[in-house]
Amino acid sequence: MQLIDGKKISLQLQEEIAIEVKKIMASGIKQPHLAAILVGNDGGSETYVASKIKACENVGFKSTLIRFPDNVSEEDLLKAVNDLNNNDDIDGFIVQLPLPRHINEHKIIEAIKPSKDVDGFHPINVGRMVLNLPCYVSATPYGIVHLLEKYKIETTGKHCVVIGRSHIVGSPMSILLAKNTELGNCTVTLCHSKTKDLISHTLKADIIICALGIPEFLKGNMVKDGVVVIDVGTTRVVSTETKSGFKLKGDVMFNEVAPKCSFITPVPGGVGPMTIASLLKNTLLAAKKEIYK
Ligand code: NAP
Question: What CA–CA distance (Å, rounded) separates 273 from 269?
């Protein structure tokens, strides 16, 4: 069994991005600038945004954090999105999800200019991804594809089971892996909460992407020997072992599943750091105007 070290690969990618930033700035292009909108003070969202801001510093990007209280109106949030759309110094921005229930998430995402949508959530970017056109690919699936590539994990002809069909992880992941590309060409089964006899699918899988948000859902008896397992799940559970009082749990029962795997990602230190690296990569593309010229 080989552990896939997402932290290491993410740092390598960040080093490459930092070199590229120096190069483009030397050529007269301005410093890349990523902005993030954060609503409320959910612990998880605070941590994710803080990591993204810190990563910006590591690679030499400028970053701006715009905070709103939980009770911000949809109108005020749309205005903030519009201001960022029209601010020439901002290359790309994200609105950290989830948003409070009184805000229509789709409306906010659709208000983001596709050329600045470095999370790749806007319908234009999703549609372009499906059609194989230049776009920002949603950061988590993009990071996972990068991990498979770095560890030279063959995908062509493999049977991949994706568990979870969210717009930000499961669905785009299933599309990317089914594409007629070097890092695709899988036969993909997309499972969700209405899937019957899930174990009959997972037992046949060469690659399993677990993205459902239920800690330790995938057990040892659900996978075959030699499987590749990518654990996307990050559920914060109360813990007495950490200073923060929380611990991140993946969707995979690691102790049972890992011994049967050829490759597996840990939580933390697997997919999470790659999501951040992919967001930086998308922001660099935005600064270089490589996708939307
Ligand atoms: P989500 O929007 O809540 O979607 C969960 C998906 O899992 C849904 O499609 C749901 O099916 C499916 N599901 C729920 N129970 C199931 C069951 N018993 N059997 C099979 N499928 C089931 O979640 P998400 O946003 O994709 O996130 C998933 C996990 O990944 C969360 O832990 C999240 O924190 C984590 N995440 C991590 C990163 C990272 O960078 N590491 C990034 C994004 C998300 P239905 O569609 O039928 O409801």
Answer: 6
Ligand 1 atom closest to 212 (CA):
7
pLDDT in tens, 164-223: 999 999 999 999 999 999 999 999 999 999 999 999 999 999 999 999 999 999 999 999
Would you call 96 a catalytic residue per the annotation?
A: yes
For residue 281, give the nearest of 120, 128, 126 by alpha carbon.
120
The one-letter code for the residue type at 69 is P
Domains of the chain with CATH codes = 31-113 (3.40.50.10860), 139-272 (3.40.50.720)
| Alpha-carbon distances of 290 from 9, 34, 86, 253, rounded to whole Å | 23, 16, 19, 41
Catalytic option among 117, 119, 206, 251: 119
- Token duo for residue 19: 């070199």
What's the CA dihedral at 128, 119, 250, 256 to 10 degrees? 30
